[in-house]
Write a structure and sequence with these properties.
By secondary structure, this protein is of the alpha/beta class. The protein has 6 helices and 5 strands. The radius of gyration is 16 Å and the shape is globular.
Length: about 160
């Protein structure tokens, strides 16, 4: 969903997808609900979506500073993935660090990986399952922790 009519028209034409300006309408039918908003808009949007998200839908947040716990509680929905793509993701050349709530299934994790891969993260994505859960870390800290855990780190 989007509130900008021109953007909706572009998306419908470019990708042959259904679009709407109504967040609730989108949430009711979405298999994946992507929260890509300014942090100061989160409470308003969560109020609009409360109770509308399908029980088995995945909520994918790329909102800076919004914890999984806060989003899950605000939406009354347990299946939340929190992702932090970096700026080059805007041109398909980035990486994305992400983590998931414990209730997120293996299939939902694969779905999140696919959606985030579209940001240019692809095989270079770093899946930092619990490293930055509800915290803010530098790239160096994440890289060191992944190395400590024996994970391959490609930046």
């Amino acid at each position: 969903s989007d509130t900008w009519a021109e953007r909706l028209t572009y998306l419908r034409g470019q990708y042959n997808i259904d679009v709407t300006a109504d967040n609730g309408e989108a949430a009711e039918v979405g298999r994946v609900v992507v929260l890509s908003i300014k942090p100061q808009s989160l409470d308003k949007v969560m109020g609009e979506l409360e109770g509308l998200i399908q029980p088995h839908a995945l909520v994918l947040s790329i909102i800076a500073g919004a914890s999984i716990k806060r989003i899950s509680k605000g939406l009354y929905h347990p299946h939340v993935v929190r992702a932090m793509p970096n700026t080059p993701a805007q041109i398909g050349q980035g990486i994305t660090v992400w983590t998931a709530a414990e209730s997120v299934s293996a299939a939902q994790r694969e779905l999140a990986k696919g959606v985030l891969g579209a940001l240019g993260a692809g095989a270079n994505a770093v899946l930092a399952a619990s490293i930055f859960h509800d915290g803010v870390y530098t790239v160096g800290e994440v890289k060191r922790e992944l190395s400590r855990r024996g994970q391959e780190v490609r930046w």
